[in-house]
Amino acid sequence: MHTVTNWIERKLGLKVNTSKTKVTKPSHLKYLGFGFVKMGDKWQARPHADSLAKFKRTLKRLTSRSWGISMDERIQRLNWVIRGWINYFRIGKMKTNMQKIDKHLRTRMRIVIWKQWKTSAKRYWGLRKLGAPEWMAKQSVGFANHYQAAAKTTGLHKISKEILAKRGLVSCRIII
Q: Are 173 and 129 in contact (CB under 8 A)?
């Protein structure tokens, strides 16, 4: 490390910040939010685990059930974050991560809609309006305030990708 630092300072005339500089394997490196992984004989960029965790925290904050905001405003803010993040990390390998995040985001959006419907009667009406059979709507309404469990039911899956897309939500899968 010392010889490299001397060479950079002497030959290139640059000042090396020793607190930020380290010699490491590319797989342990985080640079501008990217991590690096070896695929075959080449190194590929991908979003670093810390960057992915921060993105997930942001999506979680924007899909909070207790945040009293209109669905249109929520979707608009989500779209800003999703498009910005994906455009920044576009050169990285992230298809699998985006599929998982997209699935989780849709589940959280179903939970938000379920919470907004508030009463059992409204939830039943909403599911029937989306085309759920009567038995399915009744079964889903039975979950009441168990939001995560309700979001996994087949009844709430009537709030499909297409319906969320029609509402304006951008899919993480489509942008890639």
A: no
- SS3 of 45-59: EEECHHHHHHHHHHH
Contact 49, 34 (CB under 8 A): no
Helix (H/G/I), strand (E/B), else coil: 38: strand
Q: Which residues are CB-neighbours of 172 under 8 A, at least 6 positions away?
A: 82, 86, 98, 99, 101, 102, 105
Record the pTM: 0.82
Structure confidence by residue, pLDDT tens digits, 19-49: 877 777 877 878 888 988 888 888 888 999 9
Per-residue model confidence as pLDDT tens digits over 103-120 = 999 999 999 999 999 899
